[in-house]
């Protein structure tokens, strides 16, 4: 839905678009400490959401832009993050045809965009989600207080940079995050090389009194690419994760081990996958490996298979199944786009509609 500007003279220069997505499915999870879990859940393939985006033409190829987006649970109507309304995206900025785009607010990281938009045949959703083993927890997906700049596209190439302020008194570095991305998209090839750096320090406080805490940074480097051969679209991703919070566990101890799994401080991630068009649908498949290079050697492998049937351009039915094999006390779980999951196997079936 598009709503024109309220002032008569501005109607040709500005507009606001209301958009959204509703995704609900049946999920069955097995293999965790809680046993079999079967539920109706929201956001299996893509988180259910409601958003507003707009732009105002300022002339000479320059426009003011904004986006506000909230996530909700269509199974019970609640917000997906309690106490937060526009938790998914909330930013405003300027966009120039020649100079690029500058935005300020809560935004996606280059790391997550590369995973969800380029690397994963499941689009970071369903049981086969890349998020089950790749580092997508917390601020690796979205970060607040961010300034993001994106260059114009030139001969298929573009670049992005992000700087998120930690906003902790007495320190300009505690809690900050920055990232870079180099993108290429032309014809059948899409490729991205991204870097994400997260500072885990905590500044000293006076009320309550607490000393400063210094921790290692979390650093993620990822190369992702896909190529459309028409009969099949091939996907590949390789990542390196180093430092504290570089590969946080989606679930603390889902399998009830006596000794809880430890987040890796040094790991590599590999994904190979495919999308195969079949009639009015798409078959999705992937293999993901987490290689923990620490002495714990808590590796994991995931196999996933899914099918999305298009009823229209805006509505699809889906089924998906994935299984993880954890090694040496690793604790990775099969989740979906919105949930981390409770076990090492999961099946999804549902419907998704966008507007």
Automatic annotation (TrEMBL):
Q: Which UniProt keywords apply?
A: Cell outer membrane, Ion transport, Membrane, Porin, Signal, Transmembrane, Transmembrane beta strand, Transport
**How is this protein positioned relative to the membrane?**
Multi-pass membrane protein
Superkingdom of this protein's organism: Bacteria
Can you say where in the cell this protein is located? Cell outer membrane
Q: Does the keyword Coiled coil apply?
A: no
The Porin domain, residue ranges: 5-328
User: Assembly and partners?
Assistant: Homotrimer.
Q: What is this protein called?
A: Porin
Q: Which organism is it from?
A: Duganella aceris
Lineage, broadest ranks: Bacteria, Pseudomonadati, Pseudomonadota, Betaproteobacteria, Burkholderiales
